[in-house]
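User: I'm preparing a small set of examples for a lab meeting where we compare how different chains pack in three dimensions. I only have the primary sequence for this one, and I'd like the structure in token form so I can line it up with the others. Please keep the answer compact; I'll paste it straight into my notes.
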Amino acid sequence: MTPIGAMHELSIAMSILDVVEEESIRHGEGRVAAIHLKLGPLSGVAKEALLAAFDLAREETPLKECQLLIEEIPIVVYCPVCKTERSVVSIQNMCCAVCASPTPEVLAGRELEVSAMELCQ
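Assistant: Understood. Below is the structure token output for the 121-residue chain.
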């Protein structure tokens, strides 16, 4: 991984920590045990790089013992031929996995969002 790539994930990890720390203060300053994150392959973020960056970013924060739990969200598209939601052949081949038609409407797979956090007292 290039240093620029590492910096990208590090800035994202720091942003996640900032958001979660603010939210935990609003909920009574309980200790955050875990952060649940939804991550899609079209988000532009590498899972392993984000986990490594998160470990580094949390070291000198109140969230130093917090875990980052990542749920990988698959790419889902709307196929205009099948007229339903489908998976794609691959991230490089955005065609319906059933009928092979091009599928321009992406419904899922771009996610990079904190979906939950676990608080402890």
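A couple of notes for your slides: The mean pLDDT is 91. The chain is about 30% helix and 30% strand.

User: Perfect, thanks.
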